[in-house]
Amino acid sequence: MLLIEFEGGTRSIRSKVKKISIDQLGKEKPKVDVIHTVEIRTWGDFDLVYDFLLTADHPYRSIGLDSLSEMNYLNMQTVLLDAGIQDKNRDLDVPEQRDYLRSASQMRRLVRYFRDLPMHVFMTSGAQQGQDPRTKTSMMMMSLTGKLVFEIPGLFDVVGYLAMVDQEDGATERWLFTQPTGRFDAKDRTEGGKLGEYIVNPTLPKILDLVEGK
Predict the structure, then answer these.
(1) Which of 70, 81, 140, 194 is deepest in the core (most CB within 10 A)?
(2) Structural domain tally of the chain?
(3) Residue 148 is inside which H or E element, if any?
C-alpha cells in the first residue's frame, strides 16, 4: 500500500510504515506488512504521485489519502495564493465565492482521478456537525467546505463513520458504521449490503474479505 499523507498522522503506527520521498517512488519494492508513505507539501505533489501511479509499472495494490479535510485546506490556501498573485489588493484571509468554487472543482477532480485508479482506493476525512438538507436535523458529516460535504460521499461505493463505542464491561471498541442512522452520513453500495450495519474493530483486510464474500 501507498499512503499519501498531509497531516502526519502515522506516528501511532510508525513501526508499520516507511516514509519515502516522491522521487523515491518505484525505486524500492514495498514489503507486505509495511506501508510506504509519501508526504504532500504542495498541491502540485498530487500530480506527481498520480502520474506515477497511472503510468509506472509499480507494485502497489492499494492507495490511501489522509485526509481529505486537510487536503481541502491545502487546496484553499493554494487557490488564495494564486488569487493574491493576480490581485495584490486581495485580502487572503477572506475567501470569496469564486475561491470556493475553484477549490471545489479542483477537489472533485482530485478525488475522481485517484478513485478511478485500477487499485483499491481509501480516503479519510475529519468529521463536523452539520445539517441534513432534507430533514433539517443535526448530524455528523465530512469536514469539507461548501457543497463538497454532500458531493464527495456520492463519489464512493462505501462511506463509513468510525466511532468509539463503550461496552458494558468498560472496554471501548472501534465501530465502523456503514449504514446511515440519522446521526451521521454513511452508505454501502456493495451487492446486498455485505458490510452490514457496522463492523467491529475494522481493518482493511476484514473489510475487503466482507466485500468479496469471504
Answers:
(1) 70
(2) 1
(3) helix 148-151
